[in-house]
Each structure stands twice: as C-alpha cells, then as structure tokens.
Amino acid sequence: MLQKKILFSIFVLLITNHLFSQKDSTAVKEKTVKEKIEIPQGVYNPLSPSKAAFYSAILPGMGQIYNKKYWKAPIVWGILGGTTYLYIDNNSIYKRYRTAFKLRKAGLQDEFTLIDAAGNTAVLISEAGLESAQKQLRENRDLALLSSVLIYVLQIVEASVNAHLLQFNTDDNLTFKPAIIPNNMNFANSAVGFNLKYEF
Questions:
Q1: Per-residue pLDDT tens digits for 30-48
Q2: What's the predicted TM-score (pTM) here?
C-alpha cells in the first residue's frame, strides 16, 4: 500500500511538473501578432508595387529608378532602343524594296535597275529577289516590333515584382534550420522522418 502511495505521489509530481513547464501557445501567438502590428510606419507601403508599375508604363525604366535599382534603367533603355532601331531600319529598307517592286511591276525604272548611255539595262536584283527581300524584311520588322512590346511589358512586371520583393520580410526567423530531434520514448527503434513546421 505504501508503495502505491509513493508511486502515485511521484506520478502526480511528474505530471504537474510537465504541466507547469509548457509554454502558453496563445501568449506566444499574441506576442508575434503584436510584433507584426508594431511595424514602424514607412517600412511597408502597399501602393509601392502599383506606383512602380505605373511609372514604368509612363516612361520605361522609371519604375526601376523608383525602386532605387538605378543600374537596371540603362539596360531597359538600351534594349528598347535597340529593338526600336531594328524596327525603324528594317521598315525603311522594306519600303525601298517595296517601292522598287511596284515600279518594276509598272514597267518603270527603279533603284536596282541600271541604264547605261547606250540604253542597255542591267538588273541588279531580280523580281523574285525583291519579293523574297520584302518578305524577310517584313518578318524582321514585325519581330522587332513584337520584341519591343514584350520588353516594354516585361519591364513593367519586373518593376512591380521588385517593389513587392523589396518589402518582403527577410529576417533570420524565416530561415530553414534542420534539426535532429531524438525520440526519448522509443529510443531502441530509431526511425527516420521529416517534419515541416510552418508558423505565421
């Protein structure tokens, strides 16, 4: 009987010790919520991504400057300038070949037909050559236009995403920390597993 009382007393002591050693999870969560609310003003600006996208839409590269990523603006300007140059250059050459093709079809002299003093004509580019050149130049012009539009849209998206990521919380509490936790209850039969703990 005495042994049962001693065992019961030890059991009660162990249970009460375990109960008092636990942390109150609601208090911990309230503390983290209070920490989240007490963020100093000016750190998180919900309108920052939309402003960056708006500035990039008005003038390409301005969203990158708004995000203080100054080195990205010349890259945007250079790529857009290059694709615009390719569009203008291919379009002007396309118009030259198109005009020459129309003149040739009308039976008139074009810039690719030479007439010497004796009245002999020499054709530098055949009619089929003019047609294929027009087709290739039109494809190049359209590709340059498509590239310009694509770069324009991508730089708007990049400015908005970068503004989002600049406000992203990157403190050390968000890092991945692997740990080995031994199982004290079943030490003889060791087991391997994976546990993922995600908290807000």
A1: 555 444 444 444 466 778 8
A2: 0.61
